[in-house]
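Re-run with default settings, no changes from the original entry. Doing this only to confirm the output is reproducible before filing.
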Amino acid sequence: MIPAKGLNILTGSNGSGKTSILEGIYLLGRGRSFRGRIYKNIITQGEDNCAVNALVDNGIGARLRIGIRRGKHGGCVKVGNKEVRQASELARNLPLLFLSPDSQRLFTEGAKERQRFLDWILFHVEPTYFDILYRYLRILRQRNAALRQVSGRALLRAWNEELGNLGELLDKYRRKSVEVLSPILYQCSKSVLEEEILMEYSSGWDNKRPLVDVLHERVESDERLGYTLQGPHRGDLRFLSQGFPASQRLSRGEAKRFIFALVLAQAQYLVDQANIVPVILIDELTAELDNQSIYDIFQTLMMFRTQVFVTAVSDKQINKNMYHEAKMFHVERGTVRTL
């Protein structure tokens, strides 16, 4: 498959394999499927392995071949001629954003989804962030284990100090990213939603006080709970429309358009802060949207000048003007042809 550098539209009936193409691209950029980490779910029934490879242009004139093979007995990931073991190597070489009907979990599920939203941005923009987050989560597990042990009190002071210092750093990075991202989201949401959405971040503790002091104070309370109640692992991102949670005010169609605005804001943030242009994957864009909304979103995508892959059930859902501006593909029984 030879896609265009801009907008690529994949049409085909349900079950034809459109989403599998997005899944293959996602696999190359994240090292796993967007359906989860169980590889047997993405291997064709009756086969032992699945494999995807692609030629990736990093945007500054260099091309790199990325390949991944997963199977019942292990797998292999290559970036260029080098075998790599960490998914972060894939993410750095093929940054991508994914939007699907399930993306509304940002509204409906807990804070973890919204933390991941910020963590993904910071992974690409702040070189030390991933290491700080990894160390914080490791020490958090150790503190939680000590809280549940009778003899753990002696260890807690040391864990509190390190956890508090790392937690303050995480909070600083997250707050800075929200401060920069918020006006970008404001503009993106106005362009596709005609609604002004504001974004607020809560730290997960009273950040007017040092986290180390809070952790020291809460030792007995946390021992009774058996886990650490306060810290950036309890942080959350809120989206507000006219002062109320956006999830309570937006219809499903409006929520979908807002998630699209959020993806665009993420992409613009990467361009502005790190000169990184991500690939955007959108599954079933046309579901729950009227024709005008679909057209507006396509126009916005064309203006953004990034590579986009969009699936739709029928080409009748696509405005005819898009045929001249996008590369069209039809998927049937797992076979792709150019229209």
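The mean pLDDT is 86. Residues 41 and 104 are 23 Å apart (CA to CA).
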